Amino acid sequence: MTEEEFDAFYASAFPRLTGQLYALTGDHGEAQDVVQEAFVRAWDRRQSFLADEAPEAWIRTVAMRLAVSRWRRARRWLELVRRDPAPDRTPGPDPERTALVAALRRLPEAQRTAVVLHHLCDLSVERVASETGAPVGTVKARLARGRAALARYLSVGEADEQGEKEDGRVR
User: Fold this and answer.
1) How much is the pTM?
2) DSSP summary character for residue 89
3) 36: which residues sit within 8 A by CB, 6+ positions away?
């Protein structure tokens, strides 16, 4: 079967097969997908495709098998989900992490980048310098200033929490 013959066959059979598979699946998009996949498989064997007496029947059979296979996979997935349901509520980040992220946001970008790369990503000062394009001495200064600022920001947060606990009020 030449490309032109296959194209003509596709143009004439695709709408009809899609309608038939839509009746089977009840989902027009799914019907189009499985018919398209069946045509892709037919394309791979197009040299011997006309030797088959009924190429449209072959494509319909392949598409129906694909639809049934997808349905079975979806059913298995649902069974797994129902057996092991997701937790009702996902816990949020812990307060320490939230405070750290809030404090990091207050730092200038260059300091924040240096602190995160060095302390959270465990990169050496030299590697941070290489990744940021800054001299090693500049990275060291950014780290020192960033740590000092973080200490201030985080101690202020702890002081606020202490104040709330001592007088029982929420500020």
Assistant:
1) 0.47
2) S
3) 14
